[in-house]
Amino acid sequence: MRKKDAEKTIDGRIKNQGVIMIENKIILIEDDKEIRGMINDYLSGEFEVTAFNDGMSAIQKITSYDEYALALIDLMLPDISGMEIIKIIRKVSKIPIIIITAKDNDIDKSLGLNLGADDYVVKPFSLIELTARIKANIRRA
């Protein structure tokens, strides 16, 4: 979202071409319970995190509401590929997407970014760096 296309509402939400997004609301799609919990706990001080352990539940939520400021998506999920989730999200939303995955090869990185992800973070990663990347992507949105 460009600054000229956005205006803030009184309660701090961003209005983007008629769609209201919550600046600090993030959707997290990660099947590993430990990683999901760690990210959720760390980010919950600054962000409102809605976490899912499967892709289909997250897709239902994100395609019915465009209120998220950013999506964190693991590529290897039990029910649907993270790449497929990115394709689906891009049909309905322009929110920033950060891929969080153990896949560190150039082909996966290139594919993810070309499908519409805005950033790509390889596990294991620093939560401090992840937070900085989240803030940078939201700031540029």
UniProtKB/TrEMBL annotation:
GO terms for biological process: regulation of DNA-templated transcription. This is Protein containing Signal transduction response regulator, receiver region domain protein. One of its GO terms (molecular function) is phosphorelay response regulator activity. GO terms for cellular component: cytosol; protein-DNA complex. It comes from human gut metagenome. Keywords: DNA-binding. PANTHER family: REGULATOR OF RPOS (PTHR48111), STAGE 0 SPORULATION PROTEIN A HOMOLOG (PTHR48111:SF26). SMART domains: REC. Residues 25-138 form the Response regulatory domain.
